[in-house]
Design brief:
Blueprint: E1 2-4, E2 9-11, H1 12-17, E3 22-26, E4 32-35, H2 37-43, H3 47-50, H4 55-58, H5 64-77, E5 81-83, E6 109-117, E7 123-132, H6 134-158, H7 168-185, E8 189-196, H8 199-224, E9 231-236, E10 239-245, H9 249-264, E11 268-270, E12 273-275, E13 279-285, H10 293-309, E14 315-317
Parallel strand pairs: 13-14
Antiparallel strand pairs: 1-2, 3-4, 3-7, 5-6, 6-7, 8-10, 8-13, 9-10, 11-12
């Protein structure tokens, strides 16, 4: 393929062969007019075998409909298009020696599509470049796998295995941070502690699987009633703790009562049985004279105890002694 300028002629094949990427040019009938050494070496199809042949006859596995749409877009927009290995791992099925653990045996490729225009601005050829990015793709996959593993580890560290909500360690840490922030800036927040009424009886009657279903269903129901800025954690056994950001005691108690009613209305199925449960709740608001976050937990626990003492299935606000 000869490219001609005003003064010299340039051998397009020579230029293409000097590149470490695949270069293919097709005419408007999808016949090959340029096929460089990279393509010959990787495909096993020589330049002489490729020139003049329909690319889809040479490589029947190519995604024809997708490529034709890509070509049509180039013709209409007269601009280049890029496809990364993340969008499509490869276009040509070239073998690679750089195997990716758990990945394909084929070369990962970045592909660029460029329309070649004549003097009238009409597309006469479509040029494709195929870059081997197997090594980079492998490195990125390793990073992605490590990131996913770290997220999974973090989730295991911060979340309760049964209910999938936060565990005691994480919810206490977040409460300490919220408390410190309020101490500095004076913003209000509230803590709600609640537990399931007569939960031992649930376990004795329906077994631990029944009890587990109750814990999971209550956790899910409560979580759906909270805002994104609120936090819910399993504090231990059948006891839970909520951190309600930017919420005063009155609003916190109102939300707690809506949660109480929602839990009371739940019908939980386990082993062919229908199980109902209720919760008792204690509410405390941050005060500037509160010593630390542990005092808030203690006060919420006192309010919770008073709910149980008063007959259970109710919400009690902490009253300073």
């Amino acid at each position: 393929m000869i490219l001609e300028t005003n003064t010299i002629k340039i051998d397009g094949d020579l230029i293409a062969d000097s590149l470490s990427v695949g270069v293919v040019a097709l005419d408007m009938s999808h016949r090959v007019v340029l096929w460089n050494n990279f393509m010959s070496k990787q495909s096993g199809v020589s330049r002489d075998e490729a020139l003049g042949k329909d690319i889809f006859d040479l490589f029947p596995y190519l995604p024809k409909n997708w490529l034709l749409m890509k070509f049509q877009s180039l013709i209409i927009l007269k601009g280049y298009s890029f496809v990364s290995w993340r969008q499509r791992p490869y276009l040509f099925r070239f073998k690679t020696e750089r195997k990716i653990t758990g990945g394909s045996e084929h070369m990962f490729q970045d592909c660029t599509f460029v329309p070649i225009l004549d003097s009238n601005g009409e597309t006469t050829l479509i040029c494709m470049t195929i870059e081997d990015v197997t090594e980079a793709a492998g490195a990125q996959r390793a990073v992605d796998e490590l990131t996913a593993a770290n997220k999974a580890l973090q989730r295991m560290t911060n979340h309760d295995a049964l209910t999938a909500i936060y565990n005691r360690g994480y919810i206490e840490k977040q409460l300490e941070l919220e408390f410190s922030k309020s101490k500095r800036h004076g913003n209000v927040f509230s803590v709600v502690m609640f537990d399931l009424d007569y939960f031992k009886k649930v376990n004795d009657t329906y077994g631990h699987l029944g009890g587990d279903e109750v814990l999971k269903n209550v956790s899910r129901a409560v979580g759906e009633m909270l805002r994104n800025i609120d936090l819910l954690g399993r504090y231990g056994g059948e006891e839970f703790l909520m951190i309600l950001a930017e919420t005063g005691e009155q609003d916190a108690a109102a939300l707690a009562d809506r949660i109480r009613q929602a839990v009371e209305g739940l019908i939980i199925t386990s082993g062919g049985h229908q199980i109902k449960t209720t919760v008792s709740m204690g509410v405390v608001e941050f005060r500037t004279d509160t010593k630390d976050y542990l005092q808030m937990i203690h006060e919420a626990d006192i309010a919770l105890y008073n709910s149980k003492k008063s007959g259970r299935n109710r919400v009690t606000r902490y009253v300073r002694q």
